[in-house]
């Protein structure tokens, strides 16, 4: 996190978060969707069933995205940096839309509309909704709310704080590439390896910051910080993802529910370990998860803004002494 320009970057992060709260994701022409279309078009030229091809594909797209952010932000501090960071944070953040979709899922499941819930599930995760009943849909949605609290909101805030517009745009790019090609299907097992590993590295700090925020916010949903921390420390390492396990286990402990188990994707069935030692999650627990996610998002935004501002002031004092 660079000390100079702390105030302008902090203002940009705050403006981007506010824009996400007010507007949510744009319904048409979302820059992330445009990036996905460009990545898919490039893939038709770069695809080979080899890791090296995936490295070239991923590195090229990340470099291009970072360059766009650098040009937009410029090298001087001021209003231009604030505007660039605000726009990049808004583009990358998806916490408001995540929670709105979670609330829609709660409404559908409460009304007993399993077919409607199945149709909505792909908006949250890549699991096969056709094989899920109401309980399975509830668990899938809750796990997705937990994981995407980190991926869709806390991660962008962390990278906006650390590196401004270029960093947060590159973070969203690698996160999108991981969703597109970072799976273990026969087509992407090798080509998507680089995207999956890059996403793991990009989320290491964000996932653990998310876990800390979940532990702190557990009382908001009637949970125990100690239970959240215990589930995180005991169960997260068994998850196939080094980062999703942190978010899901800490959520499970905070909500007093049990997550994990058989997880059906289009390309494979995963048997995941148990996260938490509570009851099977119910629809009311999904509603609590949405509330917990919102609280974690607010706390993480506040910490990011304050941290950048304090770092900027500290840097200016050190420069003045020199």
Largest sheet properties = 2 strands, antiparallel
Distance N terminus to C terminus?
Answer: 20 Å
Strand order in the sheet with the most strands: 1-2
H/E element order: HHHHHHHHHHEEH
Shape: globular
Helix content: over 70%
Please give the domain count.
1
As residue ranges, the low-confidence spans are none
Tell me the strand percentage band.
under 5%
Tally of helical runs: 11
Nearest-angstrom radius of gyration? 20 Å
Q: Can you give the mean pLDDT?
A: 92
Function: Converts cobyric acid to cobinamide by the addition of aminopropanol on the F carboxylic group.
Organism: Mycolicibacterium poriferae
Protein name: Cobalamin biosynthesis protein CobD
GO biological process, one term: cobalamin biosynthetic process
Structure keywords:
71% helix, 4% strand, two-stranded antiparallel ribbon, mainly alpha, threonine-phosphate decarboxylase activity, Cobalamin biosynthesis protein CobD, globular, membrane, cell membrane, single chain, 322 residues, transmembrane helix
